[in-house]
User: What shape does this take?
Amino acid sequence: MTVDYLTLKWIHILSSTLLLGTGLGIAFFMWMAHRSGDARQIAATARVVVIADALFTAPAVVVQLGTGLWLAWLLHLPLTEFWVGTALLLFFVIGACWLPVVWLQARARDLARAAVEAGMPLPPAYARVMRWWFWLGWPAFISVIAIFWLMVHKPV
Assistant: This one.
């Protein structure tokens, strides 16, 4: 089976849109639940966030990398081309931030659920988890925006 260039590019753009959209959506809902301080709301939101990351974000990451490398190959673009190499580097920065964030979201979910089940307030560990979650989100988000810029402008 062969895929033409425009179809492959469309899949690549669609997966990048899905990554940005799910990333922003997940971050927004997780942050709003966190700000509520309500362990029940946090547990419910984090449960859905973990599922969304597994169903949407993770597959989009794989598709994004695969289609990006395939497009570079089709166009005979060396991975050392400035904008391609920089985008790849940023992609791995995003991954280095996102993988711990996935674990942190699951940990926040578990801590909130345990607090609800015990009828206790959120433990101090929950605040630490969310601090890490918050600070890892910024370099990932900025890197995603930078990749979009690189894909459009293709600086040399």
